[in-house]
Amino acid sequence: ETGVTQSPTHLIKTRGQQVTLRCSSQSGHNTVSWYQQALGQGPQFIFQYYREEENGRGNFPPRFSGLQFPNYSSELNVNALELDDSALYLCASSLAQANTGELFFGEGSRLTVL
Amino acid sequence: AQSVTQLDSQVPVFEEAPVELRCNYSSSVSVYLFWYVQYPNQGLQLLLKYLSGSTLVESINGFEAEFNKSQTSFHLRKPSVHISDTAEYFCAVIRSGGYQKVTFGTGTKLQVIP
Fold it and tell me: What is the pLDDT of residue B100?
């Protein structure tokens, strides 16, 4: 069974740039959620994708966008980066039909915005 | 909406001593509750979960948590901690039957002292 993998693991950008983070979900999972974890904070829900459509969104501006592909992998895109976007971005996969709320996390992509 | 409060940001404890990490939640609907653990530079891993049934749930590595509906709490306990338990612990809640937006607390850093 393949776990959740994310890339890149670390990256540095400057204000105003754009970034794309990638996630491969765990084998057999059809739902992907993205979370932002700022330093010293708990993960904050960005959005969730199910069947290639956004299935719920947290309190994040439209410059945070995403995609889910037919193989259930996903991308998180952030435009016009701001200093406060510096955080660990976590991808989590799950099986919608299980309806248990259990999430399987990748190790995250650490973004630093200078 | 659901919310989670973890009152203790850091808990130092000597090895082989007992520990309790506190978690309180708020919700107007029924919920599922979770504890996740995050080791340094890693993603989150599920430690244990409460969905329904017995209010006392256990993990494979000796942790347990008790769902207390009247006190809206889900405290995590271990009778004897080990150095390897040093990590950050996050309490989380999801509305049962809803879409999978998991709300996390701000985390408690458990520091086991040799």
Answer: 67
